[in-house]
Amino acid sequence: MGVRLMVVDDHRLLAEALASALKLRGHRVLAAAAPAAGAAELVITRAPEVCLLGTATPAEPGIFDPVARIKQERPQVAVLVLGPVPSPRGIAAAFAAGASGYVRHDERIEGVERAIMKARAGEAAVAPQLLQGAFSELLNPAAQPDDEGQRLLQMLTPREVEVLVRVADGEDTRLIAAGMGIAPSTARTHVQRVLMKLGVGSRLEAAALAARTGLLDRAGPVTRNRKPEA
């Protein structure tokens, strides 16, 4: 008996090809593609037995939020994450969010179908070695040596960190200079060095990167003893 499925991925060609292959094997595919932002809503509305949910970056923070929302709203739906070769941390994050398994993008259709059947039966649908690594990561979380915010913070001098905080606060060159007691040309040079070290092209990008990676939280409060000049 076929499984009532959804294939949700923002790569339409991949989603439609997989959906077509599963239809040929007797499964009922409710939808083939959707942008990541609307994935959870679509699955909650259609309530399939199993959902194959595509992701391109399994280690990115928050990437499995749609899985958690689906499981909260529709706990009976088994969610299989469809993605690239993952790290144990990525697998652990998927399971922690409530996923029933993880299927690689390059898996053969027979392997995808086995994972679907396992997920519908309430079993963990993931390769044994990946599952072992994932549970080890869940039970004994490793240090985060690749933490992007910490890595970026270590690239900046204390003065450059202060400049970045002020940029994120929306201060222009004049206010940065007045607040730090330096010449505008010096402030401009500091800003350019911060942009260069962070690998971004604008102040807005620098502020967004700092916020996304938690760099500003790690930087701590910045003391501003000087007041802007009139």
From TrEMBL:
CDD domains named among the record's database cross-references: LuxR_C_like
SMART domains with a match to the protein in the record: HTH_LUXR (SM00421)
Start and end residues of each HTH luxR-type domain: 149-214
UniProt superkingdom: Bacteria
Keywords carried by this UniProt record: DNA-binding, Transcription, Transcription regulation
InterPro entries from the UniProt entry: CheY-like_superfamily, Sig_transdc_resp-reg_C-effctor, Sig_transdc_resp-reg_receiver, Tscrpt_reg_LuxR_C
Pfam families: GerE, Response_reg
Keyword Transcription regulation (UniProt): yes
PROSITE patterns: HTH_LUXR_2 (PS50043), RESPONSE_REGULATORY (PS50110)
UniProt domain Response regulatory: residue ranges: 4-120
Record protein name field: Helix-turn-helix transcriptional regulator
Lineage: Bacteria, Bacillati, Actinomycetota, Actinomycetes, Kitasatosporales
